[in-house]
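note to self: the first set is below, dont mix up w the second
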Amino acid sequence: MAEEATRAAIEAGYRHIDCAYLYGNEVEVGRAIKEKIADGTIRREDLFYTGKLWSTFHPPDLVRPALEKSLQDLQMDYLDLFLIHTPLGLQPGEDLVPVDENGKYLYDNTDLRDTWEALERCKDAGLVKSIGVSNFNRRQLEWILNKPGLKYKPVCDQVECHLYLNQSKLLEFCKSHDIVLVAYSALGSSRDEAWGIDKDLPAVLEDPVLKSVADTQGRTPAQVALRYLLQRGIVALAKSFTPARIQQNLQVLDFQLSKEDMGRLEGRNRNVRYDSMLMWKDHPQYPFNDEY
């Protein structure tokens, strides 16, 4: 499925592919990319590929081997962007979500600043062009920014962000430090129960104000939801496996939302977080207890 979706996205005109070791599909994604390079649709330098360091690889000596495994699976020489997937360190080992015999999660307490230094070394080695973080709150970003001897600051923080969780305070903080805010779950969530997402939470794409603006614009709610983020200076990631929707989600650059529409959409914020990672709520570095 990932291979077909990646192929369809590249053919539709997408040039930013966001993936992660955790997703378990880098071999398939890499195959699709290699095919599209081979048939002349794209060159490697046309593509912006984002990968992520999973939480069981936070110890500095594990960072480069983890990155090299992703590069091998993707059949690439470098990544354009490499992120620390979460601030939540998990015990290194074969299991990506390690638990003890009682089902209790096994945590790792590697200092994130040491992990960051290992990412800096990967950048210096030419294995990645840029480095950043994901799911970090303001305080955790400040740990990195205030680290003695910091060589490269995070270029971005990829976080859940959509109409119902507009991240205005984190966005303001990031902009003040020239850090790009990247939105995942930009259209809300599929409410995947496997990750503890509450199916009773309201659905972003069914929001009446969003639908009203979409009707006025002659656009889909998804297109307006993405355009809302783009006009706020946020990079929006849209996930779909349906070719028609993959096409639709790209058609957000040829229209503008008015100041009035932006204000109406801004007022829909409810601080609803679909992916709260509640199973790790007792982790010392759990990021969502802070206001932002």
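second set (the one i keep forgetting abt)
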Amino acid sequence: MTTTAADTRAPSPAPSNGPDRPRPPRRRTRAADRGFNRAFRYLATSAGTLILIALAAVAGFLLWQSWPALTSSGSEIASKVSFFQGQSSLASYLGPLIFGTLLAAAVALAVATPLAIGIALFTSHYAPRRLASLLGWVIDLLAAIPSVVYGLWGALVLAPTIQPVWQWVSNVLGWIPLFKGPAADPARVLLTVSLVLAVMILPIITAVSREVFLQTPKLHEEAALALGATRWEMIRTAVLPFGRSGVVSAAMLGLGRALGETMAVVMILSPGLTYSFALLLAGKQQTIAANIALKYPEANSLGMSTLMATGLALFVITMVVNMASRWVVGRRKEFSGAN
């Protein structure tokens, strides 16, 4: 029997991964990945649920503690609570506090946000790397200063120093209700408090805005520059539109800090319970957090319940602000950079 070339051909070797490349245990790896994914999912879900439980517990505690004041008449509260004198109802006591809190936070936000955006743009697109790092470190350091230090600085240094400036503003712009004068001496007024609050929230807005601006797609920046845009035009057409939602989120974080600030307001502001837009007059406004800190030592059981009712109002205001910021950010979600 003759053999052909096909018969003498050596059998082809079986496919292998080579002597140094053993086949990985795919089933075991996939099973381990599924286990890790499942554990991480459960951990993340538990963390989110814990936050919701804590938030509900805080709301329930405030509602439970404030319920006696919410169900009592104004005359009953006035007869038992010393600091409630002259108020006809809980709403009449709470209204000026809400007004003062929102006014102080809004003025602080109006002062801090443009300055923070400018610093963030300078450190992200203009300054040399070393200078940007140094300036970012200094701005971040402001967030580590305790609020009581800001309060001491505002009461002992800023208020006496800035009083001539406020007096000049009152003389020049006194026809505007916000700057109605004459300015108080020393300047323990809401505008001084708002200036201190602006310094306190400046690091938060600056840090978040800087990181958002640095995430701008290079494709957008290079395209704007390739079309002949200057650096400012590139920032105005590419960087700012991309970071708008991030800046809004940063501003809302700063607003939350300004709404709940206590010690700095207590140490600087001369309090009052009126609906007044006059930022340079003393004894006109007060914030909820500062009022709680001042009235807590003299409060009896019903007075404590009244203060808890004001705290509940602050809690609701903070939740509304956060929900509004999430809605604004969600509307800008379709702008996804270079995608």
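remember for set 2: The two ends are 71 Å apart (CA to CA).
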